[in-house]
TrEMBL record:
Gene3D superfamilies: 3.90.660.10, FAD/NAD(P)-binding domain, Winged helix-like DNA-binding domain superfamily/Winged helix DNA-binding domain. Residues 1-54 are annotated as: Disordered. This is SWIRM domain-containing protein. Residues 89-190 form the SWIRM domain. It comes from Lactuca saligna. Residues 1-14 have a biased composition (Basic residues). GO terms for molecular function: oxidoreductase activity.
Amino acid sequence: MRMKLFSRFSRKRSPNFSPSTFQKDNTNDSTSENSGHMISSWMETPVSKRPLRKKHLSRSYDENLMDDYLDKQLGNSPRKRFRTKKELEKETEKEAMIALSLGFPIDALLEEEIKAKVVSELDGKEQNDYIVVRNHILSRWRANVHAWLSKGEIKETVSNEFNHLLHSAYDFLLFNGYINFGVSPTFKPQMPEESTEGSVIIIGAGLAGLAAARQLLSFGFKVIVLEGRNRPGGRVYTQKMGQGHNGNYAAVDLGGSVITGIHANPLGVLARQLSIPLHKVRDKCPLYDPEGKPVGKETDSKVEFIFNRLLDKVTEFRQIMGESCGDISLGSVLEKLTKLYAVATSVEEKQLLDWHFANLEYANAGPLSDLSAAYWDQDDPYEMGGDHCFLAGGNWRLIEALCEGVPIFYEKIVKTIRYGENGVEVITSDQTFQGDIVLCTVPLGVLKKKMISFVPELPERKLEAIERLGFGLLNKVAMVFPYVFWGEDVDTFGCLNRNSENRGEFFLFYSYHTVSGGSVLVALVAGEAAKSFESTHPSTLLHRVLNVLKGIYGPKGIEVPNPIQSICTKWGNDPLSCGSYSHVRVHSSGSDYDILAENVANRLFFAGEATNRQHPATMHGAYLSGLREASCIYRVRQTINNNSNDDNNNNINNNNKQNNPKKSIRRIIGVSDTLVNLFKNPDFSFGNFLFVFDPSNEDDQSTGLMMVAIDNDDDDDDKVKVKVNNGQSQRAVKLYTMVTRVQARDLVAVVGGGERGLSYMSENLGLKLMGMDCFALVANSLISNIATRRSRVRNRVVFGNRVSYT
Ligand SMILES: Cc1cc2nc3c(=O)[nH]c(=O)nc-3n(C[C@H](O)[C@H](O)[C@H](O)COP(=O)(O)OP(=O)(O)OC[C@H]3O[C@@H](n4cnc5c(N)ncnc54)[C@H](O)[C@@H]3O)c2cc1C
């Protein structure tokens, strides 16, 4: 998670710096006179920077105010056609500014727009007109994110002569997830009733998976999400903790918590759609030394200045070093520079500088010694603007809303993904799912550990990128106290550690009392300390963190109560995460994020925070990656559809045909489909009764499946007709139940099946028949087990009949 609470974001390059100076001094010992001279000139360099942890007056942030603001800016009913030229110009300018704030260039097209061929000719009048229309649509959508913005509404405000541009811009923005995305309940009627675009199996119900699922459903795809846990959200996990006297729980985010930069942030849009208030994280962040004494203002400012200047120097260093800087760690450069300039020499200054380093390690989920000096901050230019915010009630509220209407199968840990020309197959421990496309959103840590086998293996360049990129750790101790003893006027405070090695242990505390519904403090553990944290007993950790708090508040005469409940996270040991979030490691670079995002053979797609070069390691980055991949999948399908239309017109484009799988709208095969497949090859049948058993268990009491095919012919409904294996009648109703081998044998003994068999079954054996959906639900794991066992056995003799399985 990128945090800009602190000074690294305000660094500025020193104008006095010259490469030769660095080279000369680089060889010097930091204690030399020469370096002493360097230090003073270095320290005196005027740096204009944003004030550190600046004070803010306003405490709460109402995202709905954004609606009002934009409404006012745009006017209530913008009927462009009837406005004066001057009014139009003014409005166009405002709309351009809004588009700019959303990441669109004022006078150019996005690369994606160029690729999508939104205009027939670049850089001409048509492009200019397109940009005006596009900005208008974007502004209209942002002015009211609660309602679906239709083409019809836009038409009312754009002259007819620009109709083609309106279509082009609207379709681009819609299908690339720039408008009409999110969770507004009013979007429901816009959802297509039928899925016509093929099937997508999404792995992972985190932000990326859920964002993609909703978009794909709205584009008309058939979607299912397979989630390994028994809950959605992945690394967004809001835990209910510490029931208070009033019976209420506190909602505590154990994973992603801060919305980092609210402007243009899609999560801000979700919050507005759900009318969830946001709380701005206030910049005030007092620091305490290891004895619990407040750090003096002067030292604080001085060391912060040093820290900023060191980062400036790193930037200059890499400009000189060029490519070779990719092999060097940020940690080693910072260490050398600190020595070279002989800064932060007193114990207190050193501890304070270590605190800033720990804060960097938090932002990057990794020790500085792992981070690439060249590219660790490659995403800085794309940082979301605006305040950092907490969401009232926890981020779970976003997850809950995103899940609505999305078919999610829980506790399905994916082991294997097969992909090929004819589609994809996703294998979990108890089931196999088939579809047209698979979107994998599992964390980078899971890919690194090869928890999923890809068949065929992923391309070498992707495997290398997975290996190169870093995936580090951040852990938390979440504590609910009986009351707020730390003061209501801060959202964060920091503590210095004695030794560099554990500088990241409880270095920063977040107070969630404003948003969680309880007196919640969360202590962060970053860098090397986050690793040893996971192997330490939670009671030891709690004891240590309470000692830190007692050290700070004891001398102030404030008693630190025991927490009502506490939780220590272990994101590294979590097999479905294997770490916290990604960073650019030594030897890696931003382009590895792009490689991770590449699809394979237009069948296997990837999303998730570690596939987002501009916004990695964040919640919004994960969400945006889901929208991005939904658009990619949509585009691929469109190409396929167009190609197949071309095929029909005998105009075959061979190149495209090779790259794109055939259009085959296949159903996702889940439990119901497995059931149908099983009965295509029953172990045995008699009359209208068909049986399937687990081939590896011959026990009389072992349970299998039974299907009865009953003719549903209205003309002849007084008779139950006998249907054989392949059930010729389309009108046969198929009913199912579970049956033991011995019960099955009993039924065989009832001559002929049919009505006699049915009444014997219910009266003598007490078996109840169910429809397919109900049965698939009830007998889910039995069906899957039998299917798995059968797939392992090629031939088997049951009840004297030889049945072969292929
Ligand atoms: C401690 C911590 C603090 C953070 N703080 C912030 C913050 O303050 N602000 C911020 O913006 N970001 C923060 N982040 C990062 C943010 O939470 C993530 O970037 C984001 O949630 C990732 O979403 P995702 O969809 O890419 O992955 P995930 O949320 O991890 O979703 C992937 C899903 O795949 C599932 N899965 C994994 N393997 C399998 C398998 N084999 N079969 C089936 N399912 C599988 C997982 O269970 C998971 O649900 C933090 C993260 C952590 C861990």
